[in-house]
Fold this protein.
Amino acid sequence: MSPKGRRERADGIGRLNLAVAACRRCPRLVEFREGVPPRAAFRNQEYWRRGVPGFGDIDAKIVVVGLAPAAHGGNRTGRVFTGDRSAAFLMRSLYDAGLANKPESLSKDDGLLLKGCYMTAAVKCVPPGDRPTREEFLACSGYLDSEMSLLTQAQAVLALGHLAFASTLRWAATKGAQTAGVKFEHARGFAFEGLPCVWACYHPSPRNTNTGKLTRAMLTGVLRKAIEGANRGED
């Protein structure tokens, strides 16, 4: 891609991220994100309390899609998958897979860089009980669509959890993919003509990681499968 084309995509991502941060489409989510009481450990920090943009390499071959920001993670720090236990678990695997320059994601100014990877969420604001409504998923779907349109080098999407997977399938269906009958199955990739391969992975929530439903080796393994598939897709 020409330098001009890359600059245009970078500008597009920048404008999109500003729109996400300023978004107030969903009154329930706006009220909740702005009213989350700070945890004692963060009482001296100013919470972000806005829509949380995606983050990473605009030339990414791997796009990681989560459900939504965490109340004391992305909603506090202003960066997706940053500052909470799910972020810590995910970042270690991204680092092990060669997609990050460091194994932790603590704050927007921690020096984290992603290489060949972009992280985002299906819903950009923290929802009550980590459960967005169908209407909120749909209201946010245009942002994911725009991200994927700008991430033109993407060869694989890793959807973390059933709801992010369903949201990714809805995006794929709008692009003509035949998604009928496709069901979530951890570590399985689904190929759709003309689109990045969609991989399903359990979400790195404390509930899943503390019980062993998802181990670091499992998550790193799915990432490496997605990377291998993405590299083959470019051959």
